[in-house]
Design a protein that fits this description.
2 copies of one chain form a homodimer. By secondary structure, chain A is α/β, with parallel strands linked by helices. The first copy, chain A, contains 12 helices and 15 strands.
C-alpha cells in the first residue's frame, strides 16, 4: 500500500498551498498511490507522528488552497542533525514505515533541501525504499540551479504593486516626504530589486544585500534628492549591510529590545541628521501572503512543478529537486528538470554582478527581461461577503 | 460661461479618484456647464492659480481614475484663515472669477468641510454666485450626519483581508508569536474595529481611541493569551491613548526622532517585560491606496454621490455636503441627502458606546450588521504587464 507524504518547510509564500493543491490533484490520478498524507508543521509532523489524511478533504477545500495564505499544513524551520545516529532519524523512519510512505515531497527553500538531501542519504543507507523529491519555494528567489523559485513571482508582483501605490499616495502632497520601504530578503536582493521594472514603483535609491552600504553616501544621496525633488523614495532589503556600529549604538541607546528593521533605523538616522519628514514602511509578512496578487504564471508553474514531482517520484527518482529552466523569453517558455539536492542545499544564489549597472543602485535591461514575464496575469478568486475564502484543512488523522 | 471646479483635500482614499471620475462624467452630461476644472493640491491650486482643464483628459484616463491610488489632482491639508479679511479670500475669489467658477466641489473630511463652510459663507457675503458642495471622504469614517464615509468601506476591506492574511501566515508556525497590527485612525476606531467581523481577522485583543488604555492590563492580557495559546494577535489604532509617560520616556531614551507608531512602542515594551517573540506590523499608507481591494459598494456609492453633488449644485444648493443615509440593511439600501456643512465641519463621529460590549475589547452584533454590507463586491481592474494601470492626468492649464 505505497503512500505519499507531503510537507511544507520554511517561510510561507503566496503559492505554497498551490504546490500542495498540485500534489494532491496529481497523486489522485495514480491508482498505485494508496494514502495521500500531509505532515503538520513540516518535519515536526514526521518526528512527532502528526500526519493527516489529505484524502479526507473535500473538493472545495482543495480548490481553495489556490488562494489560501500561509502554509495550510503548518511549516517549520528545523535543521536535521548532521549526526545520522541521532534519534531523530529513527523516529522519522518509524513514522514513514507506519504509513508506508514511499514518496516524500519536501516543499521548501535552501535549508529544506538540506533536509531533503539528508533524508535521501539516510533512507538509502537504511535500505528503506522511499523517493524524496524537493519542490522549490522561496520569495527570496535564492535557490541555486533554477531560473526562479515558486513564490517569488507573486511576491514581486505584490512588491511592485504596493510600492506603486505608496508612491502615488506620497506624491498626492505638494510637500513631499522621504519614504523608506523595506522589503524581505536577508542575503539576496531579487525581491527588493523587482520594484525597478515599473516606472511608478522604481525608486530614487535602491539598496540591496549584494552591495556594500556606506552610511555617509546614503545620507548625502537622500539629502540631495530630497532637496531637489521635495521627495525621495528609497527601497531597501531587510538585509542591507548597515555597518554594525550604527545598529549597535541604536540598540545600546535604546537599552531594550529593538523592533522594526533597517528602514526604521535609517529613518531615525535621517531624522537626527536633517530633520526631514521621513516615513518608513516595512512591507512585512503581507508580501508573502497576498492571494489577490498571485501571478498567474506563478500559479500555473506551481501546479506543473507538483505534477512533475509526483510523476518523477513514481518513476523512482530521489534526492532531486524540480528545477524551472527558462527556454525562451519571447515568448516566455520554461521546461522542468530534476537537479541534485546536494547541489542546491545550503547554497544561495544572489543577483549576478552582470545585472547591476555602474552605481549598483540600478539594474540593467537583462533584469527587466528576466522579471517581467514572471509577474504577468491574475488569478480567479472566490470571495464570501467581500473577503477571500480560505481553505481550512480538517487535520484528521489517517485511519490505518 | 459657468464652469465647475473640483478639488481633493486631506488624506487620499482608494476611491477619492472615483469621486473625481463621477464628477467629470456627470458634469459632461450637462450642456450648461462650460469648463470642467481641477484644482491642483487642494485649496493651494485656487490660491496659486494652478487650475487644470479636465476636459482635456481622454476617456481611457478618466476610466483609469477608478483604479488609481493617491489623489490624482494632489491634495492638501490647509485650514483657511478664520479672519475673512485675509488675503487668502481675495486670491480665491480672483481665481474663481478668472475661470467663471459657479460650482465648487470639495472632496474631503472634517477639516475640508470647514473650508467648504467658510467659502460658502464668504462667497455669499461677497455676492459672488457660486454653489459650494462637499463630497465626503475619509477612511476614518468619522464624519458627522452620515451612515458612512466614502473610502471607509474599501479601507475596511483592506484591513480585514490583510489581517486575515497576517493571521494565516502567523499560525503556519508551531511556535507562535505576538503580533501587533497598527491601523490608521487617530481619534475614531471604526477602521481598526472592522477586523472583528471576520473570524480569521478577529483579533485576540483590540484597542481603540474611544477607550482608555491601561498599560498594566494590556501587558497582563497579552501575557495570559500568549501563554495559553502560544500566539496572540493584537489589533490597535494609531491613536490608542497610551499614557504620555510611556511615550515620553521612550522618546527621551532614544534621544532622537522616534519612528514607527504605537505598535512598535508596545512591541518594545512587551519585549522588555517578557522577552516574548513579538512582531509589529503597521498597515501604513497602503491601507488607503489599494485599488485591488476597493469594495464594489464603495465604488458605486462614490459615483452616485458625485452625480448627486453635481445635480444639486446645478439646482443652486450650496453650503451642503452629500450625506449617505441607510434605509435598510436586508437588503442593504441607501439614499442620498444634503446636510449643512456647518453641522459637519470640525465634528468627529466616534463609535457609539452602544456598539461596544462589556470589556470594550469587542463590538456587538450591531457593528457587524453595520459593516458587512459595506465591504461586499469586487471591482473590475485593468492590468498591464501584471501591474495595475493608473491614470496620469495631463495637468494642462485651461486655455481661457
Amino acid at each position: 500500500m505505497p503512500s505519499i507524504l507531503y510537507l511544507q518547510s520554511g517561510g510561507p509564500t503566496s503559492v505554497i498551498n498551490t504546490s500542495l493543491y498540485g500534489v494532491i490533484k496529481e497523486a489522485k490520478k495514480h491508482p498505485e498511490i494508496t494514502g495521500i498524507y500531509g505532515s503538520l508543521f513540516g518535519i515536526y509532523g514526521i518526528l512527532n507522528d502528526e500526519i493527516i489524511d489529505l484524502r479526507q478533504e473535500d473538493d472545495e477545500t482543495i480548490e481553495l488552497l489556490l488562494q489560501t495564505s500561509g502554509a495550510a499544513l503548518g511549516t517549520a524551520r528545523h535543521k536535521l542533525n548532521d549526526d545520522m545516529t541521532s534519534d531523530e532519524y529513527i523516529k522519522i523512519v518509524a513514522t514513514l514505515m507506519k504509513y508506508d510512505i514511499r514518496y516524500l515531497f519536501i516543499n521548501g527553500g535552501n535549508d529544506s533541501m538540506d533536509t531533503c538531501n539528508k533524508l535521501d542519504y539516510y533512507l538509502k543507507s537504511q535500505r528503506y525504499d522511499c523517493c524524496v523529491i524537493g519542490i522549490p519555494k522561496t520569495i527570496d528567489n535564492d535557490l541555486a540551479l533554477l531560473d526562479h523559485s515558486l513564490g517569488f513571482p507573486s511576491a514581486a508582483k505584490y512588491v511592485i504593486q504596493t510600492i506603486q501605490n505608496i508612491r502615488l499616495d506620497c506624491v498626492s502632497y505638494s510637500r513631499g516626504k522621504i519614504i523608506l520601504v523595506e522589503v524581505m530578503g536577508r542575503n539576496a536582493g531579487w525581491l527588493t530589486a523587482s520594484c525597478v521594472v515599473n516606472p511608478l514603483s522604481k525608486p530614487d535609491l535602491l539598496y540591496l544585500p549584494e552591495n556594500p552600504f556606506d552610511m555617509e553616501a546614503f545620507l548625502s544621496d537622500v539629502q540631495e534628492i530630497y532637496l531637489k525633488n521635495k521627495s525621495c523614495l528609497v527601497v531597501l532589503s531587510e538585509g542591507v549591510p548597515v555597518p554594525d556600529k550604527f545598529v549597535k549604538s541604536e540598540t545600546d541607546a535604546f537599552g531594550h529590545f529593538q523592533f522594526g528593521g533597517v528602514a526604521n533605523l535609517l529613518a531615525s538616522i535621517i531624522g537626527d541628521r536633517f530633520g526631514f519628514q521621513t516615513r518608513s514602511i516595512e512591507l512585512n509578512t503581507p508580501q508573502r501572503s497576498a492571494p489577490f496578487l498571485i501571478s498567474k504564471v506563478d500559479q500555473k508553474e506551481a501546479i506543473k512543478v507538483s505534477e512533475f514531482a509526483v510523476q518523477n517520484a513514481l518513476e523512482g527518482k530521489s534526492g532531486k529537486m524540480v528545477c524551472i529552466k527558462r527556454i525562451s523569453n519571447k515568448p516566455y517558455r520554461i521546461k522542468l528538470e530534476l537537479g541534485n539536492v546536494s547541489n542546491i542545499a545550503n547554497f544561495e544564489r544572489k543577483i549576478p554582478e552582470s545585472m547591476f549597472i555602474d552605481s549598483k543602485n540600478d539594474l540593467d535591461h537583462s533584469f527587466y527581461e528576466y522579471l517581467l514575464p514572471l509577474i504577468k496575469g491574475e488569478i480567479d478568486l472566490k470571495y464570501q461577503d467581500g473577503i477571500l475564502k480560505s481553505a481550512v484543512l480538517k487535520k484528521i488523522k489517517p485511519n490505518i
